[in-house]
Structure formats: C-alpha cells, structure tokens
Amino acid sequence: MQKMGKKNAGKINVAIKQTGMGAIPDAKGVTFRVWAPHAEKVYVTGTFNKWSKDATPLDKEENGYWSAEVSEAKVEDEYRYIIHTPVDWKLLPLSRIDPYARKVTNSIGNGIVYDTKAFNWGKDNFHIATGNELVIYEMHIGTFNVKEKGRPGTFDSAMEKLPYLQKLGINAVEVMPVAEFSGDFSWGYNTSHPFAIESIYGGPDKFKQFVKAAHEQGIAIIVDVVYNHLGPSDLAIWQFDGWSENRKGGIYFYNDRRSHTPWGDTRPDYGRSEVRQYIRDNALMWFEEYHADGLRWDSIPYIRNIEGSDAFPSDENDIPEGWSLMQWINKEIQQRFPNKISIAESMHNNAWVTKDVGAGGAGFNTQWDSEFVNPVRRAVIAIDDQSRDLGAVSKAIEYRYDLDFFRRVIFTESHDEVANGRARVPEEIWPGNVDSWFSKKRSTLGGALVLTSPGIPLIFQGQELLEDRWFQDKDPIDWLRTVDEHGILEMYRDLIVLRRNLTGMTRGLCGQNIHIHHFDDGAKLIAFHRWDKQGPNDSVVVVVNMSNKNRDDYVIGFPRAGLWKTRFNSDSYNYGPNFANHPTPDVETYDEKKDGLPCSGKIGIGPYTVVIFSQDK
C-alpha cells in the first residue's frame, strides 16, 4: 500500500484552521467535512439522498480534507461517508461513520446530523467548587440506577437520584466514560466514537439534561475520557481511508510498535497534527457543548509511554509527543475555562503530572493518588491488628504533590480498586459477610480517613451503602440498602458535612495544613491536627483507633486550651445497632505539653473508630 507522506510526520502542536469538522447544520443545509488524506474520491450518503453512494460528492480541500455543503440535508438525517481509495489498492469503496459524529444510531450504525447549539441551557452558569471543598462521587451510568431488568441505567434514571446525592453532600459527580462504546453493557473504556454520546444511555440531549439537572442540585459533572487507546472494537476510524502499515490502524493510529497497549493496537498517533487536533477538539467539546466542569483522563502513563512506565524521559519506550499533547490541551483548558478541573489517573507518584506546563509539567490540576489508596486499603483489610502498618498509613495521610495536598484525589474504592480481581473493601475484609461488624467498622474506618485526610476525597457509587462483592457492568446498585444500611449512609452524610465545613465548625478539614502529632504503634492509634488558619471553628483534631480495643483516659496533645467538642464518633449507635457507642465525651484540655503541642487532654475512643474534635470559641 501507499506510504504516508513525510510532510504528515512529526508535526507537533499545530492547530488545523477549519470552519468545523463533521456534520455542521445551518440555515443553508448541512456542511460535511472529513479528513481522508489517501482518498481518491469521497461521497456522503444518507437519508437525504436515499442512501445514494455517488449522488453527493465532497470537494477536495488542502491537507487531505474533503467537504461539501448539502442543502437537502437537515438535523436528524442519518449519514455515512463513502471513501474511494486509489485503484491500485484494489479495495472496494469504504463505508465509514463520521469520526466527528456527535450522535450515532449505535456503535456500528450510522451518524446522525446533530445541532450542537439547539439545546436550551437556560441560565446555567454553574461553577465547580474549589479543590479544597470538593467531594467527588464516581458514577457508572449503566449500573447506578437501573429501572428495567436486563437493560442498563440511563441518564434519565441517574437524574432521579441527583437529589439523593445532593442530600448526601456530594458536590461533584465523576461519570465513567459516556462516549459511544461497543454493545450495551460496558465500563465505557472501549470508546468507539469519542464525539458521540452513548445511545443506550440516551444520547447527547439526555446527557445535557443530566448535566443541567446536576448543576441545579449544586453538583458538578466531571467526565472520564479515554485517550490512551480507542476501541478496540467497532472503530470506524480503523484504517479509515484504507491506508495502513504493518496491518495496523491507519491514519489515526501509530502503525509501528507504539500502537501497542494492554487494550489492543489502538494507541492514537500523538505526533500527527490532525490526530492531535482530533483529541484536542474532543477534550474541549465536553466544556463547550456539554457544560462539563472537568475531565478525568484515564491511565495517562500509556499516553506518555508504550509500556505505561514512569521512567521519564529517558526510557526507550517514551512517547514525548504524548506528554506535549497533554500539556497543550491542559494549557488551553486553563486559558479558556479557568474554573474547570483536569484530573489525571497516573498512579505512579509523579509530581510532574500536576506541575504547571511552564515548568515542564503536564498541567493537570490534580491526580489520583496511589500513595493513599494502597497503604490505607492494606491497613483496614489486614486480618489481625498487629499487621496494620500505622507508619504507612501516616505517610499516606501526609503525602502531597508540590506542597499542595489538593493536587491529589484520595479514595479507598474506585472502579479499578473494586474490580479486576479486587473487591469492595467490606468484601475484602470478610468475604461473603459485608454486613458483619468487622466489615462495617473497618471499611468505614477507611472511608473516614478519606474524608478527614487532606486531598480531594472520592467515593465510589454504593460505597456509602456498604455495597457488596465487586463492580460489574451488569450488577446494579441495590437501592434497598438505603434502608438496610441507613446507619452507614448517615455516617457518610455526617462525615461529608464536616469535610465541607457545612456547619462552620470544621474549617480545618478544608485547609492545607496537617500535623500527625500522636503516633502509638503499640496501641494502633494516631491523632492529627488539621487547620486552615487555626483557632476556633477552624482547628480540627482527628483521632484514629485501628485496633479492636477501647481506649479510655487516653492522653493526647491538643493545639489550644479550652473545650474541644466531639463532632463525630464513628462508633455511635446512629451508624449501626451493633456498634458499641463507646463514650467519647468532649475534652477539656489542660496546660500540660504533650506530643509537641502546648496542651493535652484525655479522650475515650471505641474499637476501629474515628473521632473528630473542634472548638466553638
């Protein structure tokens, strides 16, 4: 086959100045524009020309682009491109879905002409909370609220539960990928059509309704996007215009060893300007057309390195143009949408991910933090108390990137942590007995650490209901658990109220500052001071007992004299009828130094319990 011209190779960060890509409706009809650099001829076929394969030719433009204005076409018409390759390639004309299609009948069906400007957003001018006040809820639309057995959930069914999330205290929802994927059941990470919204969930207008409804509830929407690979199935852009090398993907993909990913040979060609533009256009689409409040990029190590390694920058498998692509997009997001958030899934403890682009970093606002989830999960899952590594837990609580705690997202459960051979934390603690005292106490110990440690907390759907087993795309949330586990649900509500300082008594949990001032590995007890500016209603003392023993008249240090009120006790009867409700009275401190602090006081705390103190004045 014909080889790609050298002029197309190695172009970095060059924007293509086009009037638009895909099917663009206006008063004169619809303009169709597509990139097919190796085509000899291109036609558009659809309902507007009775699916004629040669009635509507596109004109050749510069740099491999083709376009035509079709007066007969209109919004909601179905269409495809017919691509003729050079004669000596001996290929039949190729029928392709538009790579920029905003709406499709399904992943192997047709594109649908869609008016991106028709939706009525009303007065939607929502602003996402700042990172130090965010509490994120990770949601999978297909399993979050299933209304019909044998079918996935939809944007409509998810909307029904937004008031529930608002009452829980959630102010940001991270939706697992909603771009069109193969089949009806999926996690969403097998993107077939990056610009189209999954049809089984309801399509683009329903997603806009979902975003608008979330904003009305005070909830931001963060979209999970997948740029480390595409597909691998139902990919219309695979060998899109017939050209490829080494039997690989053609113009949108690397055609050498760089194509390889754990999910298939479908890594986009980050060094080709048209592909860079394609990914950039997709990233900005979520803000421009869907009013999204942020993006969470899936597994970025596979954007920067063939094997997902973090050996930057000398590894022979490094992909420098992948790094520069992330920099380019993040810089543009920050310039055009300064109040939005960009989140990276890196999990490699790499501070450069969240450094500014000007300093050479990738420019993300924050990243998922492996330095928290792994040691904390190990500690709460361990069978015996002596196996709980308090040193590792302490490091997890205090870890940060570039001196900024909110450059990390912390959690004990996420879609990756509760699948792929791992289960939800209560299931890991006691398989088959998630309603047991041990599973409840130790899993909520982990949840409390997520919501009291510095960082942006994330909980996975159903975590607040003690959902059992592991995540599957055909296993919906059991909403009867809002009754059965109402105590655990109430605990998460109370923790989120304190984390967001909604009562005005715990500002320190929104602050940058932490000091683990008490560490007792024998007793498996730690205490830490969180603060923003210190003082009444600000300074917070969190005590964590990771043992199956009560502690009474236990002396720890406090940063100020006076009365410290008990704001939260995870051992309360309110959270479980079989909890001990061990007394945790308010603490009147006395002027005796302890743990390097000027004052001290006696506390009481139950087994596997977190207690939170703060002062009124």
Describe this structure in words.
The chain has helices at 141-144, 155-160, 162-168, 203-216, 273-288, 301-304, 320-336, 370-381, 390-398, 425-429, 437-452, 481-484, 486-499, and strands at residues 22-26, 29-35, 41-46, 59-60, 65-70, 78-84, 94-96, 111-112, 136-139, 172-175, 179-181, 191-197, 220-225, 294-297, 341-344, 366-368, 408-410, 456-460, 513-520, 525-531, 540-545, 551-558, 563-569, 587-588, 599-605, 609-614. With 617 residues, the protein is α/β, with parallel strands linked by helices. Among the domains are: 19-112, Immunoglobulin-like (Sandwich), CATH 2.60.40; 268-365, no CATH class; 507-614, Immunoglobulin-like. The strands form six sheets. Strands 9-10-13-14-15-16-17-18 form an eight-stranded parallel barrel, surrounded by five helices. A six-stranded antiparallel beta sheet has the order 19-20-21-26-23-24. The longest helix has 17 residues, at 320-336.
The portion of residues forming beta strands comes to 15-25%
Low-confidence stretches: 1-18
Q: Major sheet: order of its strands?
A: 9-10-13-14-15-16-17-18
How many angstroms does the end-to-end distance come to?
Answer: 78 Å
Q: Quote the CATH topology of the domain at 507-614.
A: Immunoglobulin-like
Question: What average pLDDT do the residues reach?
Answer: 95
The count of β-strands is 26
Largest sheet data: 8 strands, parallel, barrel
Radius of gyration, whole Å: 27 Å
The CATH class of the domain at 507-614, by name, is Mainly Beta
- Helical fraction: 10-25%
What general form does the structure show?
elongated
Structural class: alpha/beta
From the coordinates shown, what is the CATH architecture of the domain at 507-614? Sandwich
CATH H-tier superfamily of the domain at 507-614: Golgi alpha-mannosidase II
The helix tally amounts to 13
